[in-house]
Structures are given as structure tokens and as C-alpha cells.
Design a protein that fits this description.
This protein is an alpha/beta fold and about 425 residues long. The chain is about 25% helix and about 30% strand. The model has no long low-confidence stretch (mean pLDDT about 95).
């Protein structure tokens, strides 16, 4: 029996998840909290894995792994894996960010990922992330921080000082034009002191940080019928939310179910917690070993496993309809999307596509198909990297959206329930 999802409940749940997740670290922690509330036992990846059946979750920085080990399964039983990522394009604070220019206190930042630069102008931005402080008795201690107040702003040049901007287009130099201001004065403000105040330590005890900006405008419903969701970080926290909801709703009998959130997808996935890392293979191997299996059982399990790479998809933009493949239109609020690319920028092949179609049919969800125009370069996902690294059949799936990589993106409110239902059926049925 497939899980059911109430469309209104899913929208409210997503909005709360987005507002609680300004950074990958918060997104992973919030997802883990929701899974623990659904009965998943916390596990430390540095500890021995629990043996026997159960539901488990672990957080590793901005990454997350969770799994369901059903009873009475052989160690070589296949796995159904949902993969997503927690990071989004943003402006990240440099190690020495404090400086003064023309009487303004400025905060040095660097672009992270392929962000639409102009979308970060004239927005009320907050700061969030993690800070490493000197703990007791001196060992480093990691603290998450999230300042909900509008703190910094990248101010745009007035049109009176650039009369050609509407004719020739806005060209931004990230080093010169994307530096946020956060106060007035001839003396530099102290970013370490700001962080110290947030987490309650002495400024001398602030050792390092991973800090980033985010749009402080809350996630919300818009449109004449309020059937659209506008927010930052929809790519890819919609998929993360849908994955959490899917895993929490199923009781698989024939497969071990795994949910994995990677970090650093937007910059190539090459990190200790990115899709190019050993995170997923190591997790799967340890799960098989905890079930009493050996290396042969692991290889047999992987050979029969299927991965769903869950990432957002491009809906047809009405003002730029010519940028889309005419025979594969994708609409918001018309269901999840199978993503296909013959050059394997997406990992989907016929076998993976068939698994996804079976899942969508079981969930009674419509399934759209996205193909990039043949004369445009295609983006990519964790799918191809995961397929190569893990060695299992992989299919790319997403929810349709507009304004991908903007500071504030747009998706359909009615797509959330069928997206989660399709992922749940992928675990339970395909």
C-alpha cells in the first residue's frame, strides 16, 4: 500500500522547513530532527552501526544519511536510495571580511555556486552558518548560528549614475560590485565579535567559520490562487523535504531504504561530504555488514539497487519559451519530472526511467519528462556522480520550478504531494 500525502499539509511543512534551513548545516539538522520525531534513532557515524532491523539517522556537517533496515531481509537484499543535496548558491563570508570603503563598513564575501548575481541586489540579507570556537578544555567546538534579522545588503547603483543599464544590461563584477554593507563608520566592524556575540563566547575564542548570506524574506505562497511557493533555496530543499517525507512514510519489505543528502553539489561535489566522496558507498557497506553480510553480499546488493537522484527541474518560462525543448514541455503544478540527457548529464537510462514510471503509477502521480534543447548546454546533478561512484542504476527526478539559482525561486504548491508520494513509492514499490 502506497503512502498518501495531503497537499495542504505538505505545503505548510515545506514552508516551515525552508525557513528553518538557511544553510546546508541547518537543512541537515532540521531534516534529522524531523526524522527523529518520526521514530528514527540517532546514530553517530564514528560509532559501531546497530545490528538488526530499525530506522536510523545521522548528520555529518551539511550532509545527512538515514536508513530503514526491515526485518528478515538477507544481507544481500537490494537497496532503494533517494539522494539530494542541501547546498544552494549564495554569498559566503571570506576569512578576513572586515574593511571600510567610503565611510561604509563592508563585509567581504565570495560567490558560492552558479548564482544569478543580480538577484542578490537590494535584498535584506541575513547571516547564518556554523562557527568553530575554543571549547573545554580547549578542543574545538562547532556551533550553528542563524541571525534572523536583516543584517547586510548589496546596494545597487542608482540609475542616475548608470543611464545605460536598461539598454546594455547589468554587468556585475563579484569582487567589486557584490560586497555587502552592514553599517556606517570609519572603523571596521568585527565579524568575529559579531559571531562571538551570537553564540555566547569571547571573540578571542572564535577560531573559524562557514558563514553565508540568505534572503530573510520568509518562504510564502503567492499567485491568484496561492498555488505557487516563493522562497530561497527551493533548489534543492524541496527535494530534501520530499525525501524526508517519503522515507518517514514507508515500511519497505523487500528493500533496504536509504536517504542521503550531500553537500557541495553546486560547486562540483568534490568534498568529504559531496557526491564524489565515499559517503554513500561507505554507508551502504556498513549497513550490509551490520546485517551480517560480507564483501560479496555488498556487491550483490549494489548490483540490484536503484538510486533516485532528486533535484529540481526547469519548468517552461513563459517569457523565454524558446529556451525549452518544444516536444517536452514541463509545467508547474503538473507533477514530478523525469530528467533525461543523452550525454549523461542526468543519469537516467531506460531501466531507471522504468523504475520511476512504476513508482509514479503506484503513487497515482502524473510524470513529466524534461529534455534540454539540443543546442543548449545541460546542467547536471548528483545523479551521474552517484551512479559512477556507487555503481547502481540511477534515475534523475525533480519538481519543476522557475528562477533556478536566484536568491528567490518559484515552484508549484500542488507538486509537493505527488513528488513525495512518487519518492515513497520508489522506495516501497519499484
Amino acid at each position: 500500500m502506497t503512502a498518501t500525502f495531503d497537499p495542504e499539509d505538505e505545503v505548510h511543512g515545506l514552508l516551515a522547513y525552508l525557513d528553518a534551513s538557511p544553510t546546508p548545516f541547518h537543512a541537515a539538522a532540521e531534516a534529522a530532527a524531523r526524522l527523529r520525531a518520526a521514530g528514527f534513532a540517532p546514530v553517530d557515524l564514528a560509532d559501531e552501526f546497530p545490528e538488526g532491523p530499525g530506522r536510523y539517522v545521522a548528520v555529518a556537517d551539511g550532509a545527512l544519511v538515514a536508513w530503514i533496515a526491515p526485518p528478515d531481509l538477507p544481507a544481500s537484499a537490494p537497496m532503494r536510495v533517494i539522494g539530494a543535496h542541501t547546498d544552494s548558491p549564495t554569498l559566503r563570508v571570506k576569512p578576513r571580511p572586515d574593511h571600510v570603503k567610503a565611510g561604509w563598513q563592508m563585509l567581504g564575501v565570495a560567490p558560492y555556486g552558479g548564482l544569478l548575481l543580480n538577484s542578490w541586489l537590494d535584498r535584506d540579507l541575513g547571516l547564518a552558518g556554523r562557527v568553530v570556537v575554543r571549547g573545554e578544555p580547549g578542543a574545538p567546538s562547532v556551533r550553528l548560528f542563524h541571525d534572523p534579522a536583516p543584517t547586510v545588503r548589496v546596494a545597487q547603483l542608482a540609475i542616475h549614475l548608470d543611464r545605460t543599464v536598461n539598454d546594455t544590461g547589468l554587468v556585475l563584477n563579484p569582487q567589486a560590485h557584490l560586497v555587502p554593507l552592514w553599517g556606517l563608520g570609519e572603523a571596521s566592524a568585527s565579524f568575529p565579535a559579531y559571531l562571538a556575540d551570537l553564540v555566547g563566547v569571547d571573540p578571542a575564542d572564535v577560531l573559524a567559520w562557514d558563514a553565508m548570506t540568505y534572503d530573510t524574506q520568509p518562504a510564502g505562497r503567492i499567485g491568484r490562487e496561492r498555488d505557487l511557493v516563493a522562497s530561497g533555496r527551493l533548489d534543492n530543499l524541496v527535494s530534501a523535504y520530499a525525501g524526508v517525507r517519503a522515507l518517514a512514510s514507508v515500511e519497505p519489505a523487500a528493500h533496504r531504504a536509504i536517504l542521503v543528502f550531500f553537500d557541495h553539489e553546486e560547486v562540483g561535489s568534490q568534498s568529504s561530504r559531496g557526491a564524489q566522496s565515499t559517503l554513500l558507498p561507505s554507508l551502504a557497506r556498513r549497513i550490509v555488514h551490520a546485517a551480517g553480510g560480507d564483501a560479496e553480499d555488498y556487491e550483490r546488493a549494489v548490483a540490484a539497487s536503484v538510486v533516485a537522484s532528486a533535484d529540481m527541474a526547469h519548468g517552461v518560462h513563459p517569457n523565454y519559451a524558446d529556451r525549452h525543448e518544444p516536444n517536452h514541455p514541463v509545467a508547474l503544478n503538473a507533477g514530478p519530472v523525469l530528467k533525461v540527457n543523452p550525454e549523461m548529464r542526468y543519469a537516467s537510462d531506460a531501466v531507471g526511467a522504468a523504475h520511476l514510471r512504476r513508482a509514479a503509477e503506484a503513487a497515482q502521480a502524473p510524470l513529466q519528462t524534461f529534455v534540454m534543447r539540443s543546442d543548449l548546454a545541460c546542467g547536471s546533478t548528483i545523479g551521474p556522480i552517484t551512479a559512477a561512484r556507487f555503481g547502481a542504476c540511477t534515475v534523475d527526478v525533480g519538481a519543476p520550478m522557475l528562477s533556478m539559482h536566484s536568491a528567490r525561486e518559484l515552484c508549484g504548491a500542488r507538486d509537493l504531494a505527488p513528488y513525495a508520494a512518487t519518492l515513497a513509492a520508489f522506495i516501497d514499490v519499484s
